[in-house]
Each structure stands twice: as C-alpha cells, then as structure tokens.
Design a protein that fits this description.
Layout (H helix, E strand, L loop, with lengths): L1 H43 L15 H7 L4 E3 L3 E5 L6 E11 L4 H21 L3 H4 L2 H18 L5 E11 L1
Antiparallel strand pairs: 1-3, 2-3, 3-4
Helix pairs in contact: 3-5
Length: 167
C-alpha cells in the first residue's frame, strides 16, 4: 500500500512536470514569434528614409524591337533535312524584316529566287545543326546574308521564324 501511494505521488509529480514543460515550450514559442514580429516591423519601418528607386534605363536591344521595319511574310517551307539514318523534315514559316517599304516591290519581283535560295539553305542542313538555339541563329544569319546579296534597293534587317517544326 505504501508502494502504491509512492507511485501515485511520482506519477502526479511527473504529470505536473510534463504540464509545466509544455507550458514553458509554448511560452518560448510565443516569445520567439512576438520577437520576430517586432524585429520585422522595426527593420522594415524605415521606408521613408530610403530614396525612391531609380528608373532603369532600357537596353538598346529593347529599343530596336520597338523600331521594327515592315514585315514581309513568306509562305511556309517544307524541306527534307540531311540525315544518314532516317527521313527528317523541316516545316518552317519565315517572316523577313525589311529596312524600308520600297524593298517590298523588289522582293515581290525576286520572290521565286528568294524562295529557291531559302530552300537550298534549309535543305543543306542536318537536324543537329538547326535544333539548338545557336544553330537557329546561325541559320537566320545565313538566310539574311544570302538574300541581301541579291537585293539592290535595300536590305533585310532580320529573319524571324514564326513556325519551326522538325519531324
């Protein structure tokens, strides 16, 4: 019987200790949350002293995109690509950016030659050459350079792929 009383007292004390421990942990967590909020408000309250953000200057590239010249859309191209092990096709739609509206008349007259030139360039490429972004950029530059060689009244500023599918 004495042993039962002692175990009950130990259980009551340990139960009280557990409750006290839980209360202390909750108070510490509450203190940490309040301290964090106070620190946040003290550190972020100095908005008035900070100078207003400066305007970021636009890069030249963005400005040049706002000055796009006349666009001359071409019909889609479907060509076979150079491939050793399988038939691979490229379907792409190309738009040409012109430096002046007067160039449209010359392109209208030379359209069959321009399309033939583009078909020759596209069909001479392999999948590996044109599937990367760098490869596409090289292809654009080559098309632009070759077309500009046959133009007399102006030049192509840029070549845009509006569709580009390799199958």
């Amino acid at each position: 019987m004495a042993e039962e009383k002692e175990t009950q007292e130990v259980e009551e004390k340990s139960g009280g200790n557990k409750l006290l421990l839980i209360v202390i942990i909750v108070l510490l967590l509450l203190l940490l949350v309040i301290g964090g909020l106070v620190a946040y408000f003290l550190l972020s309250g100095n908005d008035e002293e900070q100078p207003p953000p400066q305007k970021i200057e636009k890069k030249h590239k963005v400005d040049s995109m706002t000055e796009i010249g006349p666009i001359y859309p071409l019909d889609p191209f479907i060509v076979n690509l150079v491939s050793a092990n399988a038939n691979r096709y490229l379907k792409c739609k190309i738009d040409l950016e012109l430096d002046s509206p007067e160039l449209q008349q010359e392109i209208d007259k030379k359209l069959p030659a321009i399309r033939d030139l583009i078909i020759q360039i596209l069909s001479s490429k392999s999948v590996e050459e044109i599937q990367t972004a760098k490869g596409k950029q090289k292809l654009k530059e080559e098309i632009k350079r070759k077309i500009n060689e046959i133009l007399t009244t102006g030049e192509i500023r840029n070549v845009y792929f509006t569709e580009f599918v390799i199958q």
